[in-house]
Specification:
This protein is an alpha+beta fold. It has one domain (23-235): L,D-transpeptidase catalytic domain-like, CATH 2.40.440. 23% of the residues lie in helices and 21% in strands. The protein contains five helices and nine strands; from the N terminus they run βααβββββββααβα. The protein has helices at residues 28-41, 50-65, 175-181, 198-204, 225-235, and strands at residues 5-7, 74-79, 89-93, 98-103, 118-120, 131-141, 144-151, 166-167, 210-214. It has a seven-stranded mixed sheet, sandwiched between helices. α1 (28-41) crosses α2 (50-65) and α2 crosses α5. Mean pLDDT is 94; it is low at 7-12. Pfam families: YkuD_2. This is Murein L,D-transpeptidase catalytic domain family protein. InterPro entries: YkuD_2 (IPR032676).
Length: 238
């Protein structure tokens, strides 16, 4: 019977990041393209680990080939292995090779304290769920403008809609909260955003865009280097 919560092999709140296993089926041309993308993103991408970016790009391309995401050229990456005191969310313009937004983002209170260590797809776990998401429609909720998310990885984030995992603003991700506490607070599993930035971030990820939430123990069928290379050769970042 599968366990509902995955625990990262790290010490609690250790700042030593968990190594990201490299993908073995990535072609040289695809890897070089991702490296060129990273270089073009500039200093704001210094904390975006190359292996995390590579996985995000491979998944994005595989999902585009499968027509599971419909907005080309935009990719959001959240590295939940980084501490919440750091800006660990990037929204990328792949075609222009630039960062549209970078911000703090909360993890679920069930996932850990400064760093997320436990991840779950189970309702009421209050955990962050790893994997690839498709952005859905927006609505006005108790947190203001919010965007629904559909999890695309069965068993890892496929309950996102049932759990009401959405992009929304939260006071506990504000600059004032961060100054007072040295880190952001906790959500119930949503990737909650700073009130100062949430509207711009949500609008930059229209319905059909790709969000990748990375963390220790992630497994995804969309990390298919062969299919990703075919998509890149045929259509680039389109």
């Amino acid at each position: 019977m599968a366990t509902s919560v995955r625990t990262a092999p790290t010490l609690p709140d250790s700042l030593a990041l968990t190594p990201v296993p490299p993908l073995t089926d990535v072609t040289d041309s695809l890897r070089q393209t991702v490296q060129q993308l990273q270089a073009s993103l500039g200093p704001e991408a210094a904390a975006l680990r190359p292996d995390v970016l590579e996985r995000a790009c491979v998944g994005y391309l595989t999902l585009r080939q499968a027509n599971r995401i419909q907005r080309p050229g935009v990719l959001a990456v959240a590295d939940m292995d980084l501490p919440s005191s750091e800006q660990r969310l990037w929204v990328l313009d792949l075609k222009e090779g630039r960062i549209l937004h970078r911000s703090h983002v909360a993890h679920g209170r069930g996932s850990g304290h400064l760093r997320a260590e436990r991840f779950s797809n189970v309702s009421r776990s209050a955990c962050t769920s790893l994997g690839f998401y498709r952005t859905q429609d927006t609505y006005g909720g108790k947190h203001g403008l919010s965007r629904r998310l559909r999890g695309l990885d069965a068993g890892q984030n496929s309950n996102a809609e049932a759990r009401y995992v959405v992009l929304h603003a939260a006071d506990y991700v504000s600059a004032a909260y961060l100054r007072e506490h040295g880190q952001v607070g906790y959500s119930r599993g949503c990737p909650a955003l700073p009130p100062e930035q949430y509207r711009a971030i949500i609008k930059s990820l229209p319905e059909g865009s790709c969000l990748f939430v990375s963390g220790p123990g992630l497994e995804s069928k969309w990390l298919d280097g062969t299919k990703a290379a075919r998509q890149l050769a045929a259509r680039g970042w389109q």
